[in-house]
Amino acid sequence: MSKDNDAPDTDREPDGEGATEPIEERPAGDASEDSVEEPDRQEPVGPARHNGAGAGSGQEIQPPDERPEETEDEESAIDEALGSNVDEDMDIDEEIAEDDPLGGLKVESSKDIKVPERLVDQVIGQDHARDIVLKAAKQRRHVMMIGSPGTGKSMLAKAMSQLLPKEDLQDVLVYHNPEDGNQPKVRTVPSGKGDQIVEAHKEEARKRNQMRTFIMWILIILILGYALIIVQQILLGILAAGIIYLAFRYMSRGSDAMVPNMIVNTAEQQTAPFEDATGAHAGALLGDVRHDPFQSGGMETPSHDRVEPGGIHKANKGVLYVDEINTLDIRTQQKLMTAIQEGEFAITGQSERSSGAMVQTEPVPCDFVMVAAGNMDAMQNMHPALRSRIKGYGYEVYMDDTIDDTPEMRRKYARFVAQEVEKDGRLPHFTRDAIAEVILEAQRRAGRKDHLTLELRNLGGLVRVAGDIARAQNKEYTEREDVLEAKQRSKSIEQQLADEYIERRKAYDMTVSEGGVVGRVNGLAVMGEDSGIMLPVMAEVTPAHGPGQVIATGKLKEMAREAVENVSAIIKKFSEEEIETEVPGWNEERYADHSYPTKSLVGKDVHIQFVQTGQQGVDGDSASITVATAVISALENIPIQQNVAMTGSLSVRGDVLPVGGVTYKIEAAAKAGIDTVIIPKANEQDVMIEDEYKEMVEIIPVTHISEVLEIALAAEPEKDSLVDRLKSITGSALESDVTPSSGKPSPQ
Q1: Sequence-ordered list of residues with C-beta below 8 angstroms from that of 741, at least 6 positions apart, any chain
Q2: Most confident listed range (312-321, 441-450, 606-615)
Q3: Whole-angstrom Cα distance, residue 632 to residue 641?
Q4: Among 665, 671, 681, 719, which one carries the catalytic annotation?
Q5: What is the pLDDT of residue 724?
Q6: What is the pLDDT of residue 81?
Q7: How far apart, in whole angstroms, are the C-alpha atoms of residue 552 and residue 548?
Q8: 679: three-class secondary structure by DSSP
Q9: Which residues on adjacent β-strands are paired with residue 398?
């Protein structure tokens, strides 16, 4: 690496002589004179520091007042660039907008909806992330986006590349270094000049090769003529001609080596470059030098011709996007941090076994804005220093999963359907009813009342499947029936497995939906993110050798085990006898603190089984009311109605708390033949089941465990006695809880 990388331009002139040597030998009068001499008017090797002077500088971000001033028109253009408003382009009926599935949009099909040409105008939702991207684009700040897959992280990153302030793009050329072939020289020139320089060098090399070839054939003819006519030794003449041929071929390599290698070409780049380096290995991200199997004997490839740019170099003056950044190797993250800090990074061979490992170029410009992305686990394996650099000199933003369901947003979702159809190019347009069904599915997938999902990638998959179904039937438009069929065909793997489990249990009579059984409750669970399944829970009380314990099986994970421990507290609280903490013969060292027995449980073990949970086990606390109901039923020997299924978390005071996935759980219960489903009162607003299931089940919201028992237990006299006893224990606190004043979810 050159020692004068940070020197002024005047100090770099001597280094440029080796790189421009073939240009100085250019014949007079050449037509490419102006463009060939361009390398003599070099910019410095490295661009202006993206983050200041580097590691030791107190401040790394260039102050805004030192940047080129933007006019008010340019600033307002950036402010309005993201999220084009549908209202400006379409007719809207404001009177029906609030209740209309399309927000009052006056269209017959998606064909009538105008789709913006620019990607930045197609962004939907993510207002907070949108504002962050606008600020980061103005000031060239780094951004880290964390959120669920399919929420628009890559789309916002691409939009950011279109919003970056206009700067002079650069072509990057790598020259042969005559002093040390393993240290190629690097030069940057304005965009478009690189092609001219390379072509001029190629033309120069071609003319020299033509002259050498002409001289070579003249010599070969003279030698062969001399050997054949005068000496009369044709074999000697052929041998001499072969030597001359090989000598000239070897000499021609010198001129080929003088042609520079353009590793970054921005001639056709209209906006700032966008480079997606997701999943890139070290060579693809940081640059590499190809291995040369012929390293001697005149057959080797010049080292500068084997230099390959990395994503960081291609993203110079633009955006480098890295999704799942935690999957990058730690050493790669360290080098990436160096590139961000210095604004330039030398290219060397990444494999120690390759001949390219001996080659290292001068620093190559990599003045990019980094957009890192990932799920929540991305922050755990991310290099702390890299995250600190992004956080300290940029922004961190969490991507929303849902957005408020407003008429304006429904209009944007209608435009989203049109965008997906236009983007695919092969799908028939959607009718108004088909668009309404897609928006209804967006509401349903949000899992919250008055919200729309922002996981638009999955929603776009539904649009494409529905369009494929309509196209297979040669329809002019995609209709609502096609969307409904697509919802069945595009089920997730988890949903398909859940449906198979339900059918299999029916075949083996494992699903009980009639009668009453002591200690058995039909619980409800979620597989994946959008698949419900019925999960029976059984409880049994048996004599114990020593103090009683609560024993749970079914491959329970941490949250589920904690939920069972909370239930054990409720069991003690609602027992018939008073709690007694001093038990004769109690060994405090033998059992954990949470296993302290009560007088009612002395000599009893409570066994809880989650039936057929499989290899995945059980996690979460949504089965808390299920476990409590099963255990209390077993303790009191009161049967539970098997036509009832339930889901809900439980506090140690007996309050029923909200859980997730209630819509999918209710649908799973309906498929299994259950006609009554108990859910937390706070989740009542989140229920958005399909029309086909609405007549199949009765949904009962509750706020306390006593309400659950009153609905689920079968024997009237015993049930009434138990519920009255529970109410007397909780007293006025329970009565205030049972009378709900708000449907808002609990903070828990």
Answers
A1: none
A2: 312-321
A3: 14
A4: 665
A5: 65
A6: 52
A7: 13
A8: strand
A9: 146
Tracing tokens 């071609």 back to the chain, one arrives at 206
Nearest to 652 by CA among 544, 718, 576, 565: 565
Q: Is 665 a catalytic residue?
A: yes
Q: Terminal CA-to-CA distance of the chain, rounded, Å?
A: 58
Q: Is the pLDDT of residue 622 over 60?
A: yes
Type of residue found at 22: P
Q: Please give the Cα distance from 677 to 236 (Å, whole number).
A: 102
Name 84's Cβ contacts closer than 8 Å, sequence gap at least 6. Answer: 116, 121, 122
- CA pair distance 272, 369, nearest whole angstrom: 10
3-state secondary structure labels for all residues of 310-324: CHHHHCCCCEEEECC
**pLDDT higher than threshold 70 for residue 21:** no
> How far is Cα 356 from Cα 691, in angstroms, rounded to an integer?
64
Is residue 282 over pLDDT 60? Answer: yes
- Supply the DSSP string of 195-229, one letter for each residue: HHHHHHHHHHHHHHHHHHHHHHHHHHHHHHHIIII
| Distance in angstroms (rounded) separating the CA atoms of residues 674 and 264 | 64
Residue 500, both tokens: 């198979």
- Altogether, the residues listed in the chain come to a count of 748
pLDDT digits (tens, 9 = 90+) for 415-449: 999 999 999 989 999 999 999 999 999 998 888 88
Inter-residue contact 582 to 499 (CB < 8 Å): no
* Token couple for 492: 């997730």
Which amino acid makes up residue 71? T
Say what the alpha-carbon torsion angle 359, 365, 368, 373 is, to the nearest 10 degrees. Answer: 0
Average of per-residue pLDDT across 342-357: 86
Please tell me the predicted confidence (pLDDT) of residue 368.
93
pLDDT at 181 exceeding the cut of 80: yes
CA–CA separation, 248 and 250 (whole Å): 5
DSSP designation for 230: I
Q: Give the span between the Cα atoms of 347 and 358, in whole angstroms.
A: 11
Here the tokens at position 663 are 């819509």
Q: How many CA atoms lie within 13 A of 597 on its CB side?
A: 24
Q: Check 35, 154, 161, 622 and give the catalytic one.
A: 622
Across residues 8-25, what is the average pLDDT?
37
Residue that has been written with the tokens 């000598």 in this structure: 247
Q: Which residues contact 734 (CB under 8 A, 6 or more apart)?
A: 654, 704, 706, 726, 727
Q: Which two tokens stand for residue 261?
A: 């290698």
Half-sphere exposure of residue 497: CA atoms within 13 angstroms, side-chain side: 12
Residue 552 contacts residue 564 (beta carbons within 8 Å) = yes
CA 631 vs. chain centroid, Å, equals 42
Structure tokens at 454: 């922002």
**CA distances to 353, 374, 379, 452 from 321, in Å:** 30, 11, 16, 27
Report how far residue 592's alpha carbon sits from residue 444's, in angstroms, rounded to the nearest whole number.
Answer: 44
CA-based nearest residue to 236, from 250, 247, 225: 225
Who's near 717: CB < 8 A, 6+ residues apart?
Answer: none
Residue 492 Cα to chain centre, angstroms:
18
- Please state whether 28 falls in left (phi above 0), alpha (psi between -120 and 50) or beta: beta
* CB 399 within 8 Å of CB 153: yes
Active site residue 622: yes
372 is written with which tokens? 């890192």
Give residues with Cβ within 8 angstroms of 607, minimum separation 6. 539, 540, 541, 542, 551, 552, 553
Give the phi and the psi of residue 476 in degrees, each rounded to 5.
-75, -35
Name the amino acid, one letter, at 256: D
CA distance 531 to 663: 9
- Parallel/antiparallel/unpaired status of strands 698-702 and 676-680: parallel
The three-state secondary structure class of 723 is: helix
Question: Tokens 């999902």 identify what position?
Answer: 453
pTM confidence score: 0.68
State whether residue 534 is helix, strand or coil: strand
